[in-house]
Design a protein that fits this description.
alpha+beta; Jelly Rolls; five-stranded antiparallel sheet; three-stranded antiparallel sheet; elongated
Length: 137
């Protein structure tokens, strides 16, 4: 069994932001040499999430709006007494810091309209890291 691990490093510019990392994840899968297995995409951050969805401008705005509505930055969150970023922690906890995708015949399997995004919830940040681990044969 092969295990191939790489890190994507990027910076974000806004408090809430979707960064499309699909192409970079696909490159890592291709370089891994894994023909059939799994690809884990993980953000080791308590205030970011990984999601899969369509890369369409209106939908991106809708997702960011919905996250803001469900987890308002100015909410009466107890954690805000410490860091003023409780909304980011809550959104990450509910949305998830990882996604797993199948790898079949050396290619990442995703739906026609599924791109992979880092969802920044507490930006801007000079460094965000995403771990991509490809496991298989």
């Amino acid at each position: 069994m092969k295990v191939h691990v790489r890190e994507i490093v990027l910076k974000t510019r806004n408090r809430l932001e979707l960064v499309d990392i699909t192409h970079r994840v696909e490159e890592i899968v291709a370089e891994s040499g894994v023909k059939n297995g799994l690809c884990l995409v993980f953000a080791p951050h308590a205030t970011a999430a990984i999601i899969a969805n369509e890369h369409e401008y209106g939908l991106i705005e809708d997702i960011l709006k919905k996250v803001s509505e469900e987890f308002p930055h100015n909410g009466k969150w107890k954690h805000n007494r410490i860091d003023d970023n409780a909304s980011a922690h809550l959104a990450s906890a509910f949305l998830g810091a990882e996604r797993t995708f199948p790898v079949v015949n050396g290619r990442l399997v995703r739906g026609t309209w599924q791109n992979i995004f880092l969802l920044e919830l507490d930006g801007p940040r000079p460094i965000r890291r995403i771990i991509v681990e490809v496991i298989g044969e």
